[in-house]
Amino acid sequence: MDSQPGATPYSAPTGCPMRGERQTSLYGPEFASDPQRVYDEFRAHGLAAPIELAPGVEATLVVQHEAALRVLQNPSFFARDSRRWAALREGRVPLDSPVLPMMAYRPNCLFTDGTEHLRLRKAVTESLGRLNTTRLSRDVERIADYLIDQFIERGSADLLGDYAKLLPLLLFNQLFGCPGDIGDRLTRGMSAIFDGEDVLRANAELTECLMELVALKRRQPGDDITSWLIQHPAGLRDEELKDQLVMLMGAGIEPERNLIANALLLLLSDSAGGPQRRGTGMLVEDALDDVLWNNPPIANYATHYPVQDVDLGGVTLKADTPVLISFAAANSDPALTDARQTLSKGAHLAWGAGPHVCPAKSPAQLIALTAIEKILNTVPDLTLAVPASAVEWRPGPFHRALVSLPVRFSPSAARHAATAAQSPVSSRIAASEEVPAARYDHVEPQKKAKGWWSSFLDVFRV
Question: What are the boundaries of the region Disordered (predicted)?
Fold first, then answer.
């Protein structure tokens, strides 16, 4: 929040009311099962609270809406460059900590400040601005058709693992112009990082395959985000290119899959009227808005580092210590209860605020909307296989993510709906004149078992 003329937004610290308080763990199942209870307890004691993001990783979580804006909109007091992180510099954070991939410095626009941030962000936003929304929707539908075709005969599915988790991964491979082998490794590496599996090895594999992609696109540019970033006047170096791609995937895949899955849960739950009321009940757009307000896919993030000791409403934030924003807590701040009646739908903080506000808000919403409408229209009798109250939430400090989203449906009804819409993947794609072969002309035969991306490309090259 910009300071008012003559006002001093921050004062010198007068004490640390959090000193000596026990830090609350945000990575266990207890927090995942009911995070709102934890946010309410935090707010009862102040606008921020000490937390533990992982074993040995301490931080402060801002849970009040106005305070969140003060941090997000004041880069002169709060930097994003995690090289400032004192505990990491001093060796007090384990190098294999599962939160480091989300917090360690990379030369991308998420972890930079000032003119360097503006240079990198301009390259990203202008490259994203070249996306054609019609083509983007078509790409989402093709990938959705392919994924649905894998389970449409079963009569049951996990809409997270079988659909919402895979769709953004495959879509980013397509948007980046990945050939088969690189795309398979990229999918595998990103999945491992998000799931906290052998993070060091996964990060090394991710770096290797993205550097290969950058080298390939320098030699053979295409109509894709990787090539557009290379061609941008900012003149990004290979390392910078690689890390902008990491940022785009990290900021896009996990939030996107959670947005899709959380909205589907809402639409399929009794509170939304269930599938029998889709025509007259909650619209998909309203479900997405509800999730962004009340169950944001990235609940706690936007790590900042105070450039000096700062007193924020009576809470001392020590210089060079991680300060995270709880988008979920800020959105549910009781101080907004009355104001929410007059606020616009997009007034939530799920996309962030200030100079680091999400640059991909519009395409992210379009992807989620298209993916949800596709599955609901193709499988019209979807029902939850468990009560909505019985679904499990994946532990972790940053996200609000389901473990799974089990559903049941009639295979015959689903196949009939797909046929009526002329959408069976094998027949429709083979006849499509809209799939330019040049986009996939680097796919090579593979001797080993194919991954999701190679298999998808094989379908689209029939």
Answer: 1-30
Alpha helix locations (H) across 295-356? Answer: 327-331
Question: How many domains does the chain contain in total?
Answer: 1
- CA dist 240 and 106 (Å) reads 8
End-to-end CA, the chain:
54
Specify if 310 maps to a domain. Answer: yes
pLDDT at 282 exceeding the cut of 90: no
**CATH number of 324's domain:** 3.30.43.20
Q: Dump pLDDT digits (tens) for 18-30.
A: 444 567 999 999 9
Choose among 433, 444, 247, 458: nearest CA to 356: 247
The alpha carbon of 389 is separated from its chain's Cα centroid by a whole number of angstroms, namely 24
With cut-offs at 50, 70 and 90, classify the pLDDT of residue 278.
very low
The Cα–Cα gap between 403 and 396 comes to: 11
The predicted structure's pLDDT at residue 96? 84
pTM for the predicted model, two decimal places: 0.85
Strands (E), 314-385: 315-317, 323-326, 383-384
Range of the domain at 345: 1-102+299-349
State which H helix or E strand residue 361 sits in: helix 361-378
